[in-house]
Write a structure and sequence with these properties.
By secondary structure, the chain is α/β, with parallel strands linked by helices. It contains 15 helices and 20 strands. The strands form 5 sheets. Strands 1, 2, 3, 4, 5, 6, 17 and 18 form an 8-stranded mixed sheet that branches. A 5-stranded parallel sheet has the order 7-16-8-9-12, with helices on one face. Strands 13-14-15 form a 3-stranded antiparallel sheet, with no helix packed on it. Bound molecules: NADP nicotinamide-adenine-dinucleotide phosphate. The site of NADP nicotinamide-adenine-dinucleotide phosphate (NAP) has 23 residues, from helix 4.
């Protein structure tokens, strides 16, 4: 098939919360000169991909949704994947975004043409998109991580990743191994327990698990939120400030989150009576160092006689089973990898070539990921990251961060237009200053001092994932573009 060249003003990669968020804001401004590229055949990002049983968001829905597109009708405090996915589908219809989305287009990379002052972005299909602005909304949690275990490819049973759930595979009466005990595993383990014959859970590091206590939002409250927007806004604000209140505990004042650790310890003690199991499940690091998990049914699922928690590691995978680190061989029919995602190296999946032939993936692989405010990169004009490096959160809703970034990006685009310029590129000094400052603050945080290794850190042990500080601080930093941070090129 012949490749096609498309032209637009703004090219957005991805149709998750980030991509749809900026598309909605562009539409609200009356613009139609934007294209969204989506590798799949439907929108939704994380909330399309992750369909494992029990998949839900661990941030309350009234906060994990756009402030500019509230949904008074959330049925639960913490909604399930389907409801969040339908929220996003509803927004696509409301803003008539489908005509602007090019489905089945996996972006591979692109280059900045300095003469033309345009990006040329390529997709796997061979199509090219020539655009003034490129916005990455690919997020950090979309490339499944399969551990490099000896013999993994020799396994003859069913094997799949939690983010690529095989709904055609019938788990009933099967012996199932789950590798990994993070946020995804603790949600689906209780859901599949009833079906399987045997559940072998391979745990490398135990998580801190607090009670979830999810509840249905009563119909009366939903009606009130629909009729009285102020009530809904006050509820959202209350949820926001409850989350924000723990930020100091993560950022250098661990005493302040110790009460959460006490609650998690209490949760463990009350749920698990077997001392050996309790020992296996007790983390040896401070709470917050890894993502804090919330569940009411994970520990009870581990108490089941069907469940074994194996902590000896994995020595080898055989065609019909797994050999643990202590040499014990256990036969299994299926292996579910709940082993997370390529996070810090995931950003390298799209290769941008910037000014003077600079390669972003190469620079980031060599020097570590460096951006300004998680959004712009020196040497790469008119390219923006939403939910870019160091803007993930352990304590609050990333949708808040995305909204701050969208505001910032649109303001910079407007400024370029206002000046009659063609492009803006962040100054290396601004980027350097930003990175030095966040790394200095991260060094004080629980992620560095809590005694754990987490996916927040890159292969050199540098935290390239988390925003160190309050979301208020981030909102302030992105509230208006510091024009001195940018060099503008004439149009
Ligand atoms: P994850 O939190 O990265 O957990 C991966 C698990 O796999 C960990 O227990 C890890 O152990 C284990 N693992 C990785 N490599 C291994 C190996 N080679 N051998 C044995 N075990 C291995 O992944 P996830 O559970 O998919 O969650 C990823 C992120 O997605 C979360 O942190 C969260 O941000 C997001 N998420 C959010 C929700 C939500 O409710 N909003 C739900 C699910 C996921 P170690 O701890 O020892 O590394």
């Amino acid at each position: 098939m012949a490749s096609v060249v498309h032209r637009c003003r703004v090219l957005v990669i991805g149709t998750g919360f980030s991509g749809l968020g900026i598309a909605i804001q562009l539409r609200k401004r009356g613009r139609d000169d934007f294209i969204l590229l989506e590798k799949a055949h439907e929108v939704g990002g994380t909330w399309r991909e992750n369909t494992y049983p029990g998949c839900a968001c661990d941030v309350p829905s009234h906060l994990y949704s756009f402030s500019f597109e509230p949904n008074p009708g959330w049925t639960q405090m913490w909604s399930g994947q389907k409801e969040i996915f339908h929220y996003l589908l509803g927004l696509v219809d409301k803003y008539d975004l489908r005509p602007n989305i090019d489905f089945g287009q996996k972006t591979t990379g692109g280059y900045w043409d300095g003469e033309e002052q345009r990006w040329h972005i390529r997709t796997e299909s061979g199509d090219e998109f020539v655009t003034q602005f490129v916005v990455s909304g690919i997020g950090a949690l979309h490339i499944p991580n399969f551990p490099d275990l000896p013999g993994r490819d020799t396994f003859e049973g069913a094997a799949f990743h939690s983010a690529q759930w095989d709904h055609d595979y019938d788990l009933r009466d099967k012996r199932v191994a789950v590798i990994g005990t993070g946020a995804s595993a603790i949600q689906f383990v209780p859901e599949i327990l009833g079906e399987v014959a045997e559940l072998q859970i391979y745990q490398r590091t135990p998580a801190w698990v607090t009670p979830r206590m999810n509840f249905d939002i009563p119909a009366g409250a939903r009606r009130l939120f629909g009729r009285v927007p102020l009530a809904r806004r006050m509820f959202r604000a209350a949820v926001y400030w409850i989350h924000e209140s723990v930020v100091l505990g993560f950022n250098g004042h661990p005493r302040l989150i110790r009460p959460i650790e006490d609650v998690a310890k209490w949760n463990l003690d009350k749920s698990i009576t077997d001392p050996d199991m309790r020992r296996k499940l007790t983390p040896s690091y401070s709470i917050g160092c890894k993502r804090i998990l919330g569940s009411d049914d994970y520990y009870p699922a581990l108490n089941s006689p069907k469940t074994q928690v194996i902590t000896e590691g994995i020595a080898e995978i055989r065609p019909d089973g797994i050999i643990a680190g202590d040499g014990t061989e256990r036969e299994v029919d299926a292996i579910i990898y709940a082993t997370g995602f390529h996070v810090t190296d995931g950003f390298e999946s799209i290769d941008f070539t910037g000014i003077d032939g600079r390669h972003l993936a190469g620079e980031w692989a060599e020097d570590g990921i460096q951006t300004h405010l998680g959004i712009t990169v020196a040497g790469y004009p008119n390219a923006f990251f939403l939910l870019g490096p160091n803007t993930g959160l352990g304590h609050n809703s990333v949708v808040f961060m995305i909204e701050s970034q969208i505001r910032y990006v649109l303001e910079l685009m407007d400024e370029i237009d206002r000046r009659g310029a063609a492009s803006a590129v962040v100054r290396p000094s601004a980027q350097h200053e930003f990175n030095s400052e966040i790394q200095r603050r991260l060094a004080r945080g629980v992620w560095s001092n809590g005694g754990c290794v987490s996916w927040y850190l890159d292969s050199s042990g540098v935290n390239r994932t988390i925003w160190p500080g309050s979301t208020v601080r981030y909102w302030r930093a992105t509230r208006s573009v510091d024009l001195g941070d940018f060099e503008f090129s004439p149009g």
